[in-house]
Amino acid sequence: MVKLMVGHKGSGKTKAMVDMANDLVQTSDGSIVFINKDHRLMYDLKYRIRVVSMEDYEFVNNIDEYIGFIYGIISSDHDLEAIFIDSILKYSNIGIGDMGTFLSVLDKISKAHKVDFYVSLSADPAELGDAIQGYEILNNPS
Fold first, then answer.
1. Which of 26, 47, 72, 131 has CB atoms 3.0–4.6 Å from 99's, for a disulfide?
2. Structure confidence at residue 49 (pLDDT)
């Protein structure tokens, strides 16, 4: 399953995702990964959550490379239960136009590998259009 947090910068998406990850780890038997652009959330997340800072992987530059990176995470952890992806649209070579394909591929990966994805998108729902249709939006974007 793919669930979304949608809204403009400063609308509380990251804090809500941190809270969701921290709550999920309390009841989870599997692993949880939180992918963030930098290291700033490392101390906000519970110690059982693996924090991945994309600053450490500077050559992941587009959606195809990002999907390959996610496959690498999945292949290295067979107990993986959930992946949180924060601020995917903050990467220089990833834009709103990529989201339809990206979310569709995540949905297929989720079904094939039984991994849930939680993705934050810093954009207005109207900007994302059809790309977010059919996915659960966890917040009330304004």
1. 131
2. 95
